[in-house]
Amino acid sequence: NQRGLKNAGSLSVVHKYRAFDQHRAKAMGEDAKGYIAWIKASGGHAQVFQNAIAHSQGQSIMAFDKLYISMNEHTGIKRQIKLEHLCLIGHLKIAGIEPGQFYFSDILPLKKAARQLFGGNPSTRIPLSELNELAVALAGCLGPPFSIAVLYRALMNWGEEKLVAVNPNFRRY
Question: What pTM, to 2 d.p., does this model score?
Answer without folding.
Answer: 0.74
